[in-house]
Amino acid sequence: xxxxxxxxxxxxxxxxxxxxxxxxxxxxxxxxxxxxxxxxxxxxxxxxxxxxxxxxxxxxxxxxxxxxxxxxxxxxxxxxxxxxxxxxxxxxxxxxxxxxxxxxxxxxxxxxxxxxxxxxxxxxxxxxxxxxxxxxxxxxxxxxxxxxxxxxxxxxxxxxxxxxxxxxxxxxxxxxxxxxxxxxxxxxxxxxxxxxxxxxxxxxxxxxxxxxxxxxxxxxxxxxxxxxxxxxxxxxxxxxxxxxxxxxxxxxxxxxxxxxxxxxxxxxxxxxxxxxxxxxxxxxxxxxxxxxxxxxxxxxxxxxxxxx
Length: 308
Prior knowledge:
The chain has 308 residues and is α/β, with parallel strands linked by helices. The protein has one domain: 3-Layer(aba) Sandwich (UDP-N-acetylmuramoyl-L-alanine:D-glutamate ligase). Helices cover 30% and strands 24% of the residues. It is built from ten helices and 13 strands. The protein has helices spanning 57-67, 82-93, 136-140, 143-148, 160-173, 189-192, 202-208, 219-223, 268-280, 287-301, and strands at residues 20-24, 28-34, 49-55, 71-79, 101-104, 110-116, 122-127, 151-154, 176-180, 198-201, 233-237, 243-247, 250-254. The strands form two sheets. Strands 5-4-1-8-9-10-11-12-13 form a nine-stranded mixed beta sheet, with helices on both faces. Strands 3-2-6-7 form a four-stranded mixed beta sheet. α2 links the parallel β4 and β5 (101-104). The protein starts with 19 loop residues before the first strand and ends in a 7-residue tail after the last helix.
């Protein structure tokens, strides 16, 4: 994964530090099944392999940002089970600060059940568990931590009202908010207001725009439409088609690096988001430059198995 250069990469997370990424999101264990093809309705097929791996969009993004050289805090919840202990230990080993990660008594840690086909495509079913216990109050009591961060990074595997609260607090504190609208679902304008950028893939962009089909051919025209709901910038990721960036200055398409063989697309979007957030902690880094670094990291991610 690309390492960030310059002073932002090594800046300590001390009082008043502006080089910090605060991730608000989920922690899951991934149960990954290799399958020859996706099963049809009512069909049973045999898996060719199975692994258990650390996951969760919030944790994945936090690890990606840390590996890209950022100082990272993760505000999240796990269950009081053995899985929660394993996931917490893994985050600690990945140099993610887990001071703000808490265990919920009587709850199971979130889990994701993933199928991966030989061409690297995946399907995912998430059992959120303790992730759904994150509340706006958990955000409100961390106002000082939100204000310390340079970038707030979030996704939607935790309750939408908690993410909306985090975004509003970040905007008020002068912290740059970045949100991935995944899993795709309706969101209030309060969550979108001030995002810089709003990150969506083709499917998520389609849900955001009321079901309009989004693909590589029409993404340039679609990327600017969500700006009317409040984001300062919008990025639509297009897999091998690269990404489209829209802001008040117009629309620009960035190509994706060439990939010889796709092994597993699971977590590629989380890698992109984490590396983008890490790059944006540097005031001199433009959104275009950060997105180019993120696309390069995502291209590396799809060539390796697992969400991280």
